Amino acid sequence: MSLVRRPSGGGPGRVGSADGGPVLTRNSSLNGLTEEVIKGATQRFDVEIVFKFTWVNKGLTRMSGLERCINLVELNLSNNQITKIEGLEGLAQLRRLQLCSNKLTRLEPAQCFTGLTRLESLALQDNRLGPGLDALGLQELGAALPGLRALYLQHLDRTGSNPVCRAEGYKPALLAALPGLCNLDGERSPGSLNYAELAAEYDAFRTAPPARKPVVLPDPAPWLAGVSLELPAGGGAAEAEVQQRHGKAVKSLDECEMLVHVLREESARFRQQLADKKTAQA
């Protein structure tokens, strides 16, 4: 993007600077912007080399002091007290404009968007635009903003909406006025899918879900159905080996039982001897 330079010379509210360039006088209202404020916030010595400016939550009520920001590409004045879009006539390089959470009630495209032919994104959520579609000036909006590709009057989840968003025919009217729009309220390709209708259908489903249908599951067949648990009749060497191992196991158990019996007798004899010894000592 080539840097635009404003020709020298005075104008309303401006006087010539030492180098011939115009500067703003200091009689701007305190509730608007001044050239000094913009230079201080952006750390630039000249507002003509300011490409991005953000001034949010500052109590701003007027859009002023931007006349010489002729190379501004992005402007964010959200969360202020602005009631009218103005002072943008010379910002021919502006691509993105954010004015969310202000006090805008109407758009007058022929006046407020004059010269903004390169504007691509306009964010106006959480204002007071409406209640009717006439508040948007749709007949002039498309001609004033031929390059507009993204327009936000509410968030994708429909929070931060303007009253106009609830007007009948809101979406079709905007798409008709702005045929080049690629993003409306966060909906990409808004002409292909109706996200608002899908969201309303989802909300209705959550509010009144359909009755649950009973699910009948068949009884599962037993895992060992048809399997005989009886041991087959043995024979030969395998049966002889089983018999031999069984005999050894029985013999070992008998020996253990005899050992336990002997231990019990020895323990009883020891306890008796201990008792006799204690009696003799007493």
From TrEMBL:
InterPro entries: Cilia_flagella_integrity (IPR050576), Leu-rich_rpt (IPR001611), LRR_dom_sf (IPR032675)
Residue ranges of the region described as Disordered: 1-23
SUPFAM superfamilies xref list: L domain-like (SSF52058)
Keywords: Leucine-rich repeat, Repeat
Compartments in which it is found: Cytoplasm, Cytoskeleton, Cilium axoneme
Gene Ontology CC: axoneme
PROSITE patterns (alphabetical): LRR
Designated name of the protein: Flagellar associated protein
